[in-house]
Amino acid sequence: MKGAPRSSQFDDVYFSVDDGLAETRHVFMQGNDLPHFWQEKGAAGAQDFVIAETGFGTGLNFLCAWKEFCETAPLKMRLDFVSFEKFPLSKTEIQEALEPWQSELGEYADKLLEQYPIRVGGFHRIVFDSRISLTLIFGDVNEYIPELEARVDCWFLDGFTPAKNPDMWSDTLYRNMARLSYNGTRFATFTAAGDVRRGLAAAGFHVEKRKGFGRKRDMIVGHYAEEGELATSSRPTRIAIIGGGLAGTSCAYVLKQYGFEPVIYETSDRLASGASGNEIGLYNPRFTALRGADSEYYSSAYAHVIRMAGHAEAIEYSHRGTLHLISNEDKDRRFSKLLENWHWHGDHIKRLSKEEASDVAGITLDHEALYLPDAGTICPYKLCVYYAKDIDIHFNHEVNDLSDIDADAYVLANGIGATKFEELPIHTVRGQVTIVKQNDALSNLRANICYSGYITAGVNERHAIGSTFQKWLEHSDILDEDDADNITRLKEAIPSLGEIDFEIDTSRAALRVSSKDRFPITGRVPNEDNIYLSTAFGSHGIVGSLAAAYLIADQMRGGVQSLPKSVAKSLSLQRFIDRAEKKRLNS
């Protein structure tokens, strides 16, 4: 067996040099009395079992738990595994570290590596199949564990030894463990350090020593011993989704993964009849200088779309990368702060000189650029079709009253039409996209380029140029002056394309929906038990709608939440209610 991999940050090994898998089984599986514990809970009627881990590392603990769960847990039970990792390894590093157990864990390791997220900070939800989900959180556990919403059955306290990584073993960790636990939640850890024992005991955990693994004399195990029982709630089964665009079809796609029975109700005779029906769509995060709800949401959403698109069929997925031109001082400041503050690995975002950007683009550019090599294009219409595969769809069905539909819960995903059922602070924004035919000059374009508009690399020998932004127009008629405006802005941003005579192939206009604060509105409607919203994604419908769908599914099933709780709060309609009340009190 090769030597155990070692962390350069902490000068410590990721697992025992004797046998990492045997250590996992001794410390975490036997220490938490697994699989007996999940069999016991399954016999009591529990449908979900949640394990939370500090220190994902190579994923060895997760893979071991995954294998044991599939082999021994009740068939109707799901495993939700949550893990924090401040310094995520690359796919290659993980693959090399797990090589000694290829014969035993290779099947599971291959699936993990296929879905492993790009290394950007935040929450990453991976659904492997109908029974196994992983919420992988890239970042400092002390920063992110207060943001976790879950009810944990047992803890794997891993990570590096307290002597070399004291910051992780903190009061913040122990307090939040208690917050997320119930009377009977278990924990196990390889360490028996006195500070750890005292910290856990002070947070309400009963702590006892056990024989350690290999060269370690002792380890500790225990359970949460404070008052409080595991809360249970009934989950709906049949879900009516109003709207067949990206918001509605992505909800159907995710809900089906979790065993719900989604039904789509669409007013027209086809999917994506509105803003989701474009032929070519860019997927990008929304950029902010500082980290906050926006960056957390769009980082996770962007990474999720990349994982999904890599396994989807017939969606015209192309990840040629996208250049965001740094054409003014405001963008220069914002992008510089972004690079400082966002927790993105350099493999996934970098600043390029204008010469480097030109080389990536294949054409001459006059500005530096922020480069996202994983970004690209998808056909939004075909993505909706992919999401809705094998979903029950009622076309030409106008819903005027939710009570007319036989369902346990409802998702309003019909854009501005959602105002028929709820009072919402949303409005439409007209946008027209111009599709031009490829010519000799454009055939050299190898990446998508964003400025105040955008041009895409070639898709089926055509390029999308867009788009207009018109709050004051409420129609989707094609306007020749809008095509001219799209092309003029392109030539101004990229002078090397200034002499090209573009041949327009087709154009499309639609009404996107945005909120007053330009952030989506999604999640359970306040004061309603069974009505949910997924709307106001603006120009980020491809990335935003999928993340919203997972949040809605988590709220319905009462499971681990796929986004930080502060982000879920920022997405909720409740934010506008709170602002209105604050304004009333201050007036």
Please explain how this structure is put together.
Helix 1 crosses helix 3 and helix 9 packs parallel to helix 13. The chain folds into two domains: 219 residues, Rossmann fold, CATH 3.40.50.150; 337 residues, D-Amino Acid Oxidase, subunit A, domain 2 (D-Amino Acid Oxidase, Chain A, domain 2). Helix content is 32%, strand content 22%. The radius of gyration is 25 Å and the shape is globular. It is of the alpha/beta class. It has 17 helices and 26 strands. Strands 5-6-4-3-7-8-10-9 form an eight-stranded mixed sheet, sandwiched between helices. An eight-stranded mixed sheet has the order 15-16-14-21-22-23-20-24, with helices on both faces. Strands 18-12-11-19-26-25 form a six-stranded mixed sheet. The termini are far apart.
